[in-house]
């Protein structure tokens, strides 16, 4: 499936909310989040399962880390969305509360407690709605006032909420806060892991880098793709992550590509991939 096809599929499943603030808002936006090298780190998780699926090695570590679910709001009465219907939900609000409980159980296995912001998931937002970076900034500040580093989704797959989180994180980077992007399951394995991630022999006529770059080429601060930090969980870490993943019972059967159990195979979920972004100097900082 080409990039246009993936976007069409995403719109069908997650709704057609506008994906990004306009350029004027981005150019005027200034975060009130401050950099404090002595503060803990901040993990931005678009939805209830992203942090565990993609950043278990961070969550299960002893680092000071706040996990914030950016789109954790409970929608009011409304017809079932396509995604909720696919996953067997009966009511959208009930399903969000169920997912929040699943996430709390998963993170508790690593001694973490999530903070859920009240923004609605893209599938529940109006197609005409606009998302404000300043509003997100204010919500985050109520939970975390300063940070030493931010982890945010790379938006591989192009999901609207992941792109919003990435856009916000890039604004933090411009303000001098270190930012690391992480690759997201299951989107990033649409064509399997790149061979430089899982150390398998390259496969003829399959270049996963091209697929990844189709979503990352507009991130000017990204280093070369293969300069990523690749984390390989050991057997004990992988077993703990799988236990946490299985807490998301309402989502896992439909997150799995092709319904073949691929997502729960150690050769799939034990890898985590991250890139530290390179901050470009502002005009005022150039000589």
Which descriptors would you attach to this protein?
single chain; 287 residues; alpha/beta; Rossmann fold; seven-stranded mixed sheet; 12% strand; globular; disordered N terminus; disordered C terminus
Quick overview:
The chain has 12 helices and 9 strands. With 287 residues, the chain is α/β, with parallel strands linked by helices.
Arithmetic mean of pLDDT: 90
The third-level CATH topology is Rossmann fold
Strand content: 5-15%
So how many helices?
Answer: 12
Order of helices and strands: HHEEHEHHEHEEHEHHEHHHE
Radius of gyration: 18 Å
Number of strands: 9
Largest sheet composition: 7 strands, mixed
Shape: globular
Polypeptide structure, described:
The chain has 287 residues and is an alpha/beta fold. It has a single domain (3-278), classed as Rossmann fold (3-Layer(aba) Sandwich), CATH 3.40.50. It has twelve helices and nine strands. The protein has a seven-stranded mixed beta sheet with strand order 4-3-2-6-7-9-8, with helices on both faces. A two-stranded parallel sheet has the order 1-5. α3 (50-59) links the parallel β2 and β3. The N and C termini lie far apart (46 Å). The relative contact order is 0.17.
Map the helices and strands.
Layout: H1 3-14, H2 23-28, E1 34-35, E2 41-45, H3 50-59, E3 65-69, H4 82-86, H5 92-108, E4 115-116, H6 133-143, E5 146-147, E6 150-153, H7 160-174, E7 179-182, H8 195-198, H9 208-216, E8 229-232, H10 235-245, H11 252-255, H12 266-269, E9 271-276
Parallel strand pairs: 1-5, 2-3, 2-6, 3-4, 6-7
Antiparallel strand pairs: 7-9, 8-9
